Amino acid sequence: MTATSLTSTQGAGRAGDKVFSTAALAAGCFILAVLFGVALFLVVQAIPALTAPAAEIQGGEGFFAYIWPIVIGTIIAAAIALVIATPIAIGVALFISHFAPRRLASGLGYVVDLLAAIPSVIYGAWGAAFLAKEISPAYNWLAANMGWLPIFQGPASATGKTILTAGIVLSVMVLPIITSLSREIFLQTPKLHEEAALALGATRWEMIKMSVFPFARPGIISAVMLGLGRALGETMAVALVLSSGALTASLIQSGNQTIAAEIALNFPEASGLKVSTLIAAGLVLFIITLAVNMIARWIISRHKEFSGAN
Amino acid sequence: MKALRIGRHAAIAVIAAGALALTSCGSDNATGTAPAGGQTSGTKVTGTLTGIGSSAQGAAMDAWKTEFAAANPGATVQYSPDGSGAGRKALLDGSAQFAGTDAYLKDDEYESSKEICGPDGAINIPVYISPIAVAFNLPGISELKLDAATVAKIFRGEIAKWNDPAIAALNEGVELPDLKVTPVNRSDDSGTTSNFTDYLAAAAPEVWTDKSSGVWPASLQGENAKGTSGVVKTVTDTPGAVTYADDSAVGGDLGVAQIKVGESFTTISAEAAAKAVDAGSPVEGRSANDLSIKLDRKTTAEGAYPIVLVSFHAVCSTYDSQETVDLVKAFESYVVSEEGQQAAADSAKSAPLSSELAEKATKAIESIKVKS
Known about the structure:
Chain A is mainly α. Chain A is 77% helix and 0% strand. Chain A is globular and about 70 Å long.
């Protein structure tokens, strides 16, 4: 990098800069335009359903009565998935980043990433054809022994195609997302922090508690939120696995429904107001996803100053 | 993640736009392709015919498309199984030349069809008859006798055990197990559900208090699964489960119910289904050639099986060009012909039209002409 080489490339560099910055700006604007277009499409198409008389909406009690049970169902399914997947994912990520021998770690990381590449319809088919059948005796046991808990109230579904099964399938699907991201974050923990903790006499677990987790907290949260996004929007697996129905507190009876599955199941034969209703349901899902993203951003920005990164 | 999501939406938008472009191309071809030499109906036809509609007809349509294209090398038929509603809409806005639909055009749809199809509007031609079986998984039992009220009670969850007196009374001599009844219905909006609930609402109105609908009544607690294959698989895996499904999809170890019609019980079969369709009555207020059939679910005709799905092709009574007329006539004539119906029966296990109905359909198809 001498002065001459700098001046000789400057002319071309300026033109290249201009082209590049214009291209980047166009790409940025394009994304915004697409987002705006999708939002506009959803709103415009949803208006007939939002303004139609209550009796004409499916169920006969208006859009709100139609949408809220499936909003709750969507949240229940996603919550089950996260409750199961988060601890396992963090455990796997920690094992890969801090415990496993190097050769095993890279192989394991590869296998986890492979899980993310399996199409959701495969998970759905597995859940519907195999898991549901195999897990239904466990539901009968839960109903008999833990039935006093409202979420395990019997009689258990005979087919095993319940929201809990759907949640378990979803948890397997979000596992690789949370694991890969957490692993990357854990690996970025400053070596000096870790070594300092160990030098002070901390055990390995204490070291992880003192240096890795505080540093990785915002990263873990964004990984979980990314998983949540997948769980909220997952369509095919839920549509295949869940035996849908009215909103029920029990997780081991058939019932509940998610927005994405509701749209997928009813859109092919829908016409007229029904299409608008389903698109309005899509709009609600869009808003929920947007809200989840914004909350995640907010949590991350709030935690940033406390993390070990600074 | 936001970017990912948007990407997905954008991709869908692009695909949708592409599909639209393709469909419009298709219709252009059909009306725009000049035939080689003076074509009259009866000889080989050329061009592209575009249809949109019911997915229930999908398997049969595949067979018809292939056979028709083989017999008429210059002609192709495109069919997109987007659903009955989408098909009827496409026919009415002119983006498809025919619609495959599980329900004949509604009165207001018939009225608005006059805009694009001329003063006689669109005509509905029955092309696909599929009996719907009530199938159950009871180890060791392959046949049960049921009447409409009992079927309705089973699917409403009002009968808890298979050895319930209501079932036992109809099945003397059959050893019914003390097994929980698990009704399984379709989770997706479907013509099968619509016809099944229509039967229950008509034949057992005192038990089945919901209206007929393609979506299973939400107030009913029950298991469900996606698609015909989904319900059949679920029932096969679950002892004590019972469902309704196209007869062609029911197999293996599942038992099939005989349904009480009049004073006797009818076993499901293609002939029994066709008989039930013949017992139906024409819909009033349509053009002379229309073959919309209002099924009589309460029929007492001996040997008729009333739980049946009839799917139609809705076509225009007049088209803009002679080529399209020739093409539609040639294709529809083939579909309702004996070999067309046999092709559907072979590939989709549907019930062929009775010769009487096929004759009427042929006559209706012959009446299609160029807009004057």
